[in-house]
Sequence to fold (407 residues):
Amino acid sequence: MRESDLLDAAAFAGGVPYDYFRELRARPGLPRAVDAEGRVHWYLVRHADVVRAARDPETFRSAPSTMTSVRQDSTGLPLISFLDAPEHTRLRKRAFKGFTPARLAALEKPVAAVVDRILAEVTAADGFDLAEDVALRLPLEVLTELIGVPAGDREQVIEWTRHTVNLGDPGYHHSTPEKAVAAFGGLMAYFEDLVRQRRKAPGDDLFSVLLGVDREDGGGGGAGLEPEEIALFATTLMGAGGETTYCSLTGGVLALLENPAQLAALCADPSLVPSAVEEIVRWVTPATHFARQVARDTEIGGRRVRAGERVVLWYTSANRDEAVFDRPDRFDVARRPNPHVSFGGGGPHVCIGRGLAALELRLFLTAAAGLLPRLELTGPPVRTATNFMNSYRSVPARFVGQPRRQV
Fold:
């Protein structure tokens, strides 16, 4: 394999090429690739280098895009992850108010109810798709609750969102590029209308919180954020927030099935759930990478990197760095400490929804751990054709035998 191959989804067709990343980490300096457009990409494959770049936004900039794949021009709109200060700071400050510990605590019962209902449905079914019917369904239902989508509209919002995930995968049966564009437009129009409704009649939801922050900041009842800005944030949240849990939950369950001793340990000791959540997120690393633009000449990994070039933060490699993790290729639900970089490695772009993702995974494992020994795959998992998200488009499965009594 060549370094440039990693920019192609085909390099990930059989899974993340961990052996090749191990080889790159062992080389001195930084690996370098040139894409089809002649742009230089320096690969940050070590944990220390990824963290350094993530926490230095003055040198490593997000605009105009953090993507290296077909997804980077999928909207043409200023997504929050594509912005730098001060625009990014302004939006993030407002958005963070919707993800405070108090607001996440208030979501605990609704999320638990969604988990229980989904598990009841799939345990009673003759067969189901772990990826579609559980791992994707769970975060999308939770996000419609967080945003405040009325109950009667939630199925439509979820269906639109299904068309905006796994972009660039020609085999994903829910969507085509044309359907994805139409679905994105549907979400934007719907959320802009919902913003206007919340301005007139605020509730206890994310949109009302964002508008309330505007009032606190002297924005005159929401004048500080335009309806399109809030709608774009919500649309991004539905897709990106949904995919993070979708990838983690699917890959985490597969890891537990492939490591029965770890599953047994988790079933026997519920106190391992929090560390199991962190290990699943490290092990899977939902987003394999993001890119940054180099704003000024600098040195990283012992190499001179020049302004105008790009660096790629390979989180999936940093999370297997032997210099940081003991036996990194071992899945260990009791792993502590676990300084993974799956949520960005710190800095201003650290994932704003990381607390929500952890809550969803924690409540799922708490409810499902005792059921998982009864889970069997009824066909081979089918990976998503992308080098960006470490995901599966389909994992056919079913529950067999009698329910396992909770320990």
Observations:
- Confidence is low (pLDDT under 50) at residues 216-223.
- The CA atoms of residues 89 and 348 lie 8 Å apart.
- The chain has one domain: 3-399.
